[in-house]
Design goal:
By secondary structure, this protein is mainly alpha-helical. The protein contains 3 helices and no strands. It has a domain of 45 residues. The longest helix has 11 residues.
């Protein structure tokens, strides 16, 4: 059974995904604040509104792209 994600369909949302990924991958030793990143990149839902769970969306999308966020502890 596939686990339900809380972020939804990433393709239906808009933000500069490549720029976000490149920024986080460029961090050397930095604790990632997904909520702050999401606000800066203005993650929007399929209605074009700022997503209420934007930090969670940013985190789940980065993990789905293979970005290892737990290295930043």
């Amino acid at each position: 059974m596939k686990r339900k994600g809380h972020a939804g369909n990433f393709d239906a949302m808009t933000w500069d995904k490549n720029k976000l990924k490149l920024e986080v991958e460029g961090y050397k030793d930095y604790k990632v604040n997904c909520s702050e990143l999401a606000q800066r990149y203005e993650i929007r839902n399929k209605k074009g509104e700022i997503a209420k769970n934007d930090g969670q969306i940013a985190q789940e999308w980065l993990i789905s792209q293979g970005v290892h966020l737990h290295r930043f502890k």
